[in-house]
Specification:
The complex is a heterodimer of chains A (75) and B (698).
Chain A: H1 2-42, H2 47-55, H3 58-73
Helix pairs in contact in A: 1-2, 1-3
Chain B: E1 7-15, H1 19-29, E2 33-35, H2 52-69, E3 81-82, H3 83-91, H4 94-129, E4 145-152, H5 157-162, E5 167-173, E6 177-185, H6 189-196, E7 202-203, H7 213-263, E8 270-271, E9 275-283, H8 287-298, E10 302-309, H9 314-319, E11 328-329, H10 335-338, H11 341-347, H12 358-373, H13 376-392, H14 396-420, E12 422-423, E13 426-427, H15 445-449, H16 455-460, E14 463-466, E15 472-475, H17 483-513, H18 515-543, H19 551-575, H20 578-581, H21 583-591, H22 595-618, H23 630-667, E16 677-678, E17 689-690, H24 692-697
Parallel strand pairs in B: 3-17, 11-16
Antiparallel strand pairs in B: 1-9, 1-10, 2-9, 4-6, 4-7, 5-6, 8-9, 12-13, 14-15
Helix pairs in contact in B: 1-8, 2-4, 2-7, 3-7, 4-7, 12-14, 12-22, 12-23, 13-14, 17-18, 17-22, 18-19, 22-23
Classes of the chains: A mainly alpha (75), B alpha+beta (698).
């Protein structure tokens, strides 16, 4: 029973890590993407640089994922 | 290969009378990147366009206008024409002849359109009048009475009844609205009209004529039908013109544009009363041959001098005269790498003095894409689509995407077969005897097809032995099983990628400012990065493997710590506090590569679920000796195709975008400055017109 509870807690923790990090990334990207689309409409040549800024916050969710995976497989 | 081509600056001086001829020669050598002249201390100003240019511009304007009217454009399919033929036709007034021919038709069309518009408004008014029992001639011709005619939204009869000395006619139905004609004293006209506006009154003009409006209406309709037919005939005539002239129009458009481009060259160079002077960049390896060709064709009327061959040190650039500062970048890439230049240009054009990252992207971009997809079943459509795109499309955006899909597809196939050993999210060879479970966790191709693959085939797949208790042999790395292993690989790939980026940065700085600057600006970061990596490796041994602070672990932590410190101290010289603040970011950069494994996992997870839906739920395959009814088989296969199409499309978006991001953000920001000027030599690109000499060669 104790082991099952422990596994369940790990699963909840992993889910929170990915989920919350995802929300954070989404909030960050929301603003960046809106601004980037505006900029690209004005001048399509900034596409590459705009893309960089848009996907920058995405790293955060990867961190969350790494933590989740560690929770499952390493702890 | 890594650096843009070396460039030399030449100055060409010649006599003005032979300028026309000289411009032809400059275009023929196809190597001169003009440096725009600015009127400066030398006091010589820019020249004026060649005399023929204004005529050519005028003609081009006409040609473009006609192309627009006839809907002839870049995509119109036309045949090639010999350049001399087009030149002859233009010189003998071809453009003007075609114009007068087309203008006649266009004028007719405009007339017709105007008549139709007038008739339509007349028809509308007659439609209103037709509701009233008054002939047209009775509306006008009075001296003290005025008529007010128009449409209304609501019934104005009660109001009109209250008017003294007024005669009125109203036809009203709630559905269609109504018409009203009121005859009042001329002096009361405006007042009445204003009062009527409360009923939604809109005045209608009474057309001239006599007799009943109904008759006039049908006459107008007949006339309209006739005009429409005429308009259609004119449309056909224009179509004929289009067919007849489209080839000439496209060819003359191109020829005239070329003439104008050539004619405007004097605007970019210095021209005095008797001579011209022009500065240009030429690829260093071509400089001598260009000089020789220009001198041999223009003889004693020209003098070409090679002024300098620009080095990569930025001090050369700083010391140069303002307009000679920027050296154009001619990227030096092979056939395949050329296709990736566009991806780099999305960020910026490389500077003349720095490493062109194109060749590195050519290798890593498809590699990362392939690693993330890592599945034969998705790889083959990628390869086919990419090859098809490369063969058919000319648009640079689509070509760039097709290139990544093609080469990425090849990598995906290699990884999918030799590393993951799977197609459509299923391993080729399953774990013996527990292939298909009710949970649908393991479905493999050999179990589904009820075949045993030959031993040599299984030998190609990597063998992963699992579990310390029993021996479970996997043929291929399981994306959702060997997660820690895949994460480690991703991080190692990231380390290599990042170290490469730092090395490129050091090479750039060493070339631009010398080795000392390279050490302080980029070398410090490489040292700090190495230190952090070693330190973290030591710490993971303590935290996850349960080692104590002793032996190798202690050394690792100590060496890592010292290296980090040295690196940070070096960086502190140039970057100040940022050297410390950015240290955790270095770990973040490495972890960012975890997406290589993560995207693969997400694909595998979706594929697993979809396969379970199809094989477990629809086809009901739960035991090794299963049987599927033909109907369920068909439904299942259709669903299989549909669901995997979803995964496949998501693979393009996520794998493609993330592979690109790793190049742009993690890799290129380490060493790439950009902001270069693209090398654009004087050169003519003919598509529709063909030079006579080229035909001879064929």
């Amino acid at each position: 029973m104790a082991i099952e509870t422990e596994a369940g807690l790990i699963a909840i923790g992993a889910g929170l890590a990915v989920g919350l990090a995802g929300i954070g990334s989404g909030l960050g990207e929301k603003d960046a993407a809106a601004a980037a689309i505006g900029a690209i409409t004005e001048d399509p040549s900034v596409f590459g640089r705009a893309l960089i800024f848009v996907v920058l916050p995405e790293t955060i969710v990867i961190f969350g994922l790494v933590i989740a995976i560690m929770a499952f497989f390493v702890l | 290969m890594l650096l843009p081509e070396s460039m030399s600056r030449v100055v060409i001086v010649g006599t003005k009378p032979r300028l026309d001829e000289a411009i032809e020669v400059f275009y023929d050598v196809q190597a001169l990147h003009l440096i725009d002249h600015t009127t400066g201390a030398d006091g010589i100003s820019i020249g004026s366009p060649l005399p023929a240019t204004s005529k050519a511009s005028e003609r081009l304007l006409k040609v473009r206008a006609m192309e627009k009217e006839l809907a002839v454009g870049k995509t119109t399919d036309t045949a090639g024409v010999e350049a001399w033929d087009v030149q002859r036709q233009i010189a003998s007034g071809g453009v003007e002849n075609v114009e007068s021919d087309i203008l006649k038709t266009l004028d007719k069309r405009n007339d017709l359109n105007q008549q139709i518009a007038e008739l339509n408004s007349k028809k509308k008014n007659l439609g209103i009048l037709a509701k009233l029992p008054i002939d047209l001639e009775f509306y006008s011709g009075y001296s003290s009475i005025a008529s007010i005619v128009g449409s209304v939204d609501s019934d104005p009869s009660p109001f009109l009844k209250s008017l003294p000395d007024a005669e009125y006619f109203v036809s009203f139905s709630k559905k269609e609205g109504g018409a009203v004609a009121a005859f009042v004293r001329a002096s009361e006209r405006d007042k009445t009209a204003a009062a009527l506006s409360e009923f939604g009154f809109t005045e209608a003009a009474v057309p001239e004529g006599s007799g009943s409006p109904t008759a006039a209406l049908s006459a107008a309709e007949q006339r309209l039908t006739a005009l429409d037919a005429e308009l259609k005939a004119i449309g056909n005539e224009l179509d004929d013109h289009r067919e007849k002239y489209k080839t000439f129009l496209r060819a003359s458009d191109e020829e005239l544009s070329i003439q104008i481009n050539k004619g405007e060259v004097p605007l970019r160079i210095a021209v005095s009363d008797y001579s011209y002077i022009l500065d240009a960049w030429v690829p260093a390896k071509k400089a001598d041959s260009v000089k020789a060709e220009i001198e041999s064709r223009l003889g004693r009327d020209v003098h070409v001098e090679i002024e300098e061959t620009r080095g990569r040190n930025l001090h050369d650039e700083e010391n140069a005269e303002e307009r000679f500062k920027k050296t154009p970048t001619k990227q030096n890439n092979g056939l395949v790498a050329k296709e990736f230049e566009y991806a780099v240009s999305l960020v910026s054009v490389p500077k003349y003095q720095e490493i062109d990252p194109t060749i590195l992207l050519t290798f890593f971009l498809p590699l990362f894409f392939g690693f993330m997809v890592g599945d034969c079943g998705y790889a083959i459509p990628f390869i086919i689509l990419g090859a098809f795109g490369l063969k058919t499309t000319r648009h640079k955006d689509w070509r760039a995407i097709a290139t990544v899909l093609f080469f990425g597809g090849i990598w995906a196939f290699l990884f999918g077969f030799f590393f993951f050993g799977e197609a459509l999210g299923m391993h080729f060879v399953g774990v013996a005897d527990e292939l298909i479970t009710a949970g649908g966790k393991e479905v493999s191709w050999d179990a589904l097809l009820k075949v045993d693959f030959p031993a040599w085939f299984e030998g190609l797949l990597p063998e992963i032995v699992h579990n310390e208790h029993g021996v479970i042999v996997h043929h291929g790395v399981g994306k959702l099983v060997e997660v820690t292993f895949l994460l480690k690989i991703s991080v190692y790939i990231g380390l290599i990628h990042l170290v490469l980026a730092y090395v490129c940065g050091i090479l750039n700085k060493a070339r631009q400012h010398g080795p000392k600057a390279a050490l302080f600006e980029k070398g410090g970061w490489l040292i700090a990065f190495t230190g952090i990596v070693v330190l973290c490796y030591g710490l993971t041994r303590v935290l996850f493997d349960g080692d104590g602070f002793e032996g190798l672990t202690l050394y690792l932590v100590a060496v890592g710590g010292v290296l980090t410190l040295i690196g940070t101290v070096i960086n502190f010289e140039t970057e100040g506090a940022q050297a410390v603040i950015e240290l955790p970011g270095l770990i973040g950069n490495v972890l960012s590569y975890a997406r290589l494994a993560a995207i693969g996992m997400s694909k595998a997870g979706m594929a697993l679920a979809f396969n379970y839906i199809v094989f477990g739920m629809i086809m009901g395959i739960n035991t090794p000796d299963f049987h599927v009814s033909p109907i369920m088989l068909i439904i299942g296969l259709l669903m299989l195709g549909l669901l995997h199409l979803v995964v496949w499309i998501l693979a393009i978006l996520s794998a493609g975008l993330h592979a690109l991001r790793l190049q742009f953000v993690e890799f290129m920001t380490r060493f790439f400055d950009g902001g270069g000027v693209k090398y654009e030599p004087l050169k003519i690109k003919r598509e529709k017109t063909i030079l006579h000499s080229e035909i001879k060669e064929v």
